[in-house]
Amino acid sequence: MKGLMIIGNNIEDGEALLTRDLLLRAGLKLDLVSIYKSNRKIKTAYGLNIQADYAVNEVELFEYDFLIIPGGKWVFELLEKPRTQIVSKLALTYYNNDKLVAAICAAPRFLGHEHLLKDKDFTCFPSCEEGIDGKYHQDKKVVIEDNIITAKGLGAVFEFSYEIIRYLLGREAAEKVLKDTHYR
Fold first, then answer.
1. How buried is residue 171: exposed, middle or buried, by Cβ count under 10 Å (0-12/13-18/19+)?
2. Residue 93: enclosing H or E segment and its boundaries?
3. N or C: which terminus of the chain has fewer CB atoms within 10 Å of its end residue's CB?
4. What is the pTM of this model?
């Protein structure tokens, strides 16, 4: 099973990289794909320079089994630009094809942009729920509804990753990752 994590400049470092780490430990494959055409270089919100596996034009975006969207400042920057359409279209297509869509921190705003959370339970970073027409749960770190997983932010990365792994591979695989990383 292979997933796509869509990334851009100013992604939240921990949300992207720790989620990636935990999913790889579970045996899942995950490609980091830059939203920029012909540019794989990304500078995270806290200045880490990373290189995506692919640029957006180098890969077939809809051939993956699941989609992960990390949060960070990039969400707000993209919501003001046409590139939002790339992320929103990905989320919509994956959702409509019954593939897992997982978004953390501010990233549920992309799902809200396409009304994927309408009348659905969700969580996100506090204040990012504005304009999303779903049922916001500020007291929950992670919320799962249908094929959508949303999480509050960096402090919920282990729970977020656990639920992704559990959804895709089962509870035993998810528990093993938490045990192997001494989380539990």
1. exposed
2. helix 84-96
3. C
4. 0.96
Instruction: State how far the Cα of 17 lies from the Cα of 15, in Å rounded to an integer.
Output: 6
2-180: in CATH 1.20.1260.10: no
pLDDT tens, residue by residue, 15-55: 999 999 999 999 999 999 999 998 999 999 999 999 999 99
Distance of alpha carbon 96 from alpha carbon 58, whole angstroms: 23
- C-beta separation of 122 from 103 below 8 A: no
pLDDT tens, residue by residue, 109-146: 999 988 999 999 999 999 999 889 999 999 999 999 99
SS3 readout for 29-84: EEEEEECCCCCCEEECCCCCEEECCEEHHHCCCCCCCEEEECCEHHHHHHCCCCCH
Contact call for residues 62 and 93 (beta carbons, < 8 A): yes
Q: Tell me which amino acid residue 97 is.
A: N
